[in-house]
Amino acid sequence: MLCVLALEEHGVTPENGPILVTGASGGVGSTAVAILCEIRFEVTASTGRLDETDYLKDLGASSVIDRGELGEENPRPLQKTLWAGVVDAVGSHTLANAIAQTNANGCVAACGLAQGPGLPTSVMPFILRGVTLAGVNSVHVPFARRKMAWDRMATDLDANKLEQMTEVVGLNDAIGVAEKILQGQIRGRVVWT
Fold this sequence. Notes:
The protein is an alpha/beta fold. Helix content is 38%, strand content 20%. It has helices spanning 2-9, 27-38, 53-59, 68-71, 92-100, 124-128, 143-156, 159-164, 174-182; strands at 19-21, 43-47, 63-66, 83-88, 102-110, 132-135, 166-169, 189-192. The protein is globular and about 55 Å long. The two termini are 24 Å apart. 38% of the residues are buried.
């Protein structure tokens, strides 16, 4: 929700065009897809797990692309513009390519580094297109902003979609589930009971 707030605060609206969500089958990505679609954005979901295409479309994504389209190094700092905004949970080359493909005056909300912490890009998208890179963290968030995010989630995250993206497991299953997490075989969120 904090990434969605960042996009909205930087003037991104459904009328501006589609939103890219990277790491879309993970917890942050799934939540972003569901919320953005609920508030009428057109969403393209990028994932390394194309077997989750039906899941992502059920959350509302209008299209699903393979992460390979964004995950490789591209020497061009400006690429064809495709996105009004981006929610990036991946970082590295994926983030650099997403920035290079963002429309003029668009916003990229970066909140993850699954691919790595580097950002191999230049200042060109920022100064030639006016792209904003908004760093989003969920740790050092003031109470008022946290409350705003929770209030918005209560209205903008469909309860059925939340249930669809959540797996509840017991502590006895912790080791097996942890192995699946490390192998990238979990979608959405895992809640331990």
